[in-house]
Specification:
Layout (H helix, E strand, L loop, with lengths): L2 H25 L8 H23 L6 H24 L5 H32 L7 E3 L9 E7 L8 H13 L3 H7 L9 E8 L9 E2 L5 H11 L6 E2 L15 E6 L5 E2 L6 E7 L2 E10 L15 H4 L7 H14 L6 E3 L3 H11 L34 E3 L7 E3 L1 E3 L3 E3 L2
Parallel strand pairs: 2-3, 2-6, 4-7, 6-9
Antiparallel strand pairs: 1-10, 3-5, 8-9, 11-12, 13-14
Length: 409
């Protein structure tokens, strides 16, 4: 057992045992303290009950509200009843006062523990929620080569999204946005274009729900793209063929099949896909197939397309996810750890089981582009949109520059 935990348990046992002994001695008239120990226990029980009730009232919704109120209320009533019983019997036996005092202290500890946890969460929830971006020692892609792959027969070179992505790739290397990224202190030296390709091969299981970039379907698709297993076409007429092997510093932007339902817990996602010879895998940005209808009249008929925010153009979404795949490809690069207030609010809104990790750990959107999204975890963050070159119409996502804050290129 951890020595600090052992010490805390020892102190709790000694303190609890001491209170039981004092209460018993008071009740039997062996110690004359005018009942101050009893009054202190009543006062602590009352204050603890108020803290628990206030926390439950303010931190809604708690799915465990009724249980918490019931436990706290029953503990408080039990403490009062037991303390009253201690003083109502003249010349009580040693066994009787020991049982009554012990039960009162146990209920008091239960109530005090509930109040202590609630109080700590309340104070933590009121603490600073400002994110602090930091580097966590893992690998980043220092000179990324951005390769776009449009997956599925629903994509065509005439799609507004494909045309915008081609324009993004043609301009990114010398753009003001890429210059802002490489000069921001994130360790990125250059961003280059690795080409844009369309793979008309449909998803093997059209009904499959794509929720994880590490799924076999995604890994199989990338393997087929870069080993010649699928016949690809360039996004532009006369464009270069797809590379026969995956470039060493490739970051793949995989645009999902329009016919498949992709749900990454947000609009888009990034992650690492397993790859032979690369222990950490290949950095991949996953973009939803709903973009196949972006800019077309059919968007209004597609629920997925309609849910795309007005500001989230293809180039905006691509710049957001690609930059995060570059700066935090393996979950150990650049990101802001969750402030204490975020975790406290998560527990307050998900109930006591969240303290023990039941239901999963809170996911904190603290990566470089997430921190600059409108309504993000950064307090007061407004919509901030940049331009790829400062003069063209290609919008890009703002990102968090260390020690500076959000910049848009």
């Amino acid at each position: 057992m951890n020595p600090w935990i052992a010490a805390a348990v020892a102190v709790a046992l000694v303190g609890g045992g001491g209170n039981v002994w004092l209460l018993a001695q008071e009740a039997r008239g062996r110690i004359h303290t005018r009942g101050w120990n009893t009054r202190v226990l009543r006062w602590l029980a009352a204050v603890s009950l108020l803290v628990v009730l206030a926390t439950v009232a303010v931190a809604r919704p708690w799915y465990w509200d009724a249980a918490l109120v019931l436990v706290a209320g029953a503990s408080f009533a039990g403490v009062l009843a037991l303390l009253r019983a201690l003083w109502q019997v003249r010349a009580p036996s040693r066994l009787r006062v020991s049982v009554l005092a012990g039960a009162a202290v146990v209920l008091g500890v239960v109530l005090l523990s509930l109040a202590g946890v609630a109080g700590v969460l309340d104070v933590a929830g009121a603490s600073s929620s400002d994110p602090v971006l930091g580097y966590h020692g893992g690998s980043i892609v220092r000179a990324p080569e951005l390769v776009d792959v449009f997956w599925g027969p629903g994509w065509s070179a005439q799609s507004p999204t494909v045309r915008q992505v081609v324009a993004f790739g043609d301009a990114v290397a010398g753009s003001s946005w890429a210059t802002a990224v490489t000069s921001s202190g994130l360790g990125i030296t250059a961003i280059t274009n690795g080409g844009c390709f369309i793979d008309p091969t449909p998803l093997a299981d059209p009904a499959r729900r794509l929720t994880d970039l590490s799924a076999n379907a995604v890994a199989n698709e990338l393997a087929a793209v870069f080993d010649g297993g699928h016949v690809l076409s360039s996004c532009t007429v006369g464009g270069p063929p797809a590379p026969a092997t995956l470039p060493a510093d490739a970051v793949v932007a995989l645009w999902m099949p329009p016919s498949a339902h992709s749900d990454f817990g947000g609009l888009a996602a990034h992650g690492a896909v397993p790859w032979p010879g690369r222990p950490h895998g290949v950095p991949v940005a996953g973009l939803p197939g709903e973009y196949a209808h972006w800019g077309l009249p059919g968007c209004v008929e597609d629920p997925g397309c309609r849910r795309l925010p007005d500001y989230a153009t293809p180039s905006y979404a691509l710049s957001h996810e690609a930059l995060e795949a570059i700066t935090d490809p393996y979950d150990s690069g650049w990101f802001a750890s969750a402030p204490l207030s975020f975790t406290a609010h998560y527990v307050l809104t998900h109930g006591p089981p969240a303290l023990f990790g039941v239901g999963g750990r809170p996911s904190y959107p603290g990566e470089v582009a997430d921190l600059c999204e409108p309504g993000s975890v950064a307090p007061g963050q407004r919509l901030l949109i940049g331009r790829l070159t400062g003069t063209d119409g290609l919008t890009v996502a703002a990102f968090y520059r260390p020690r500076v804050g959000c910049v848009a290129g």
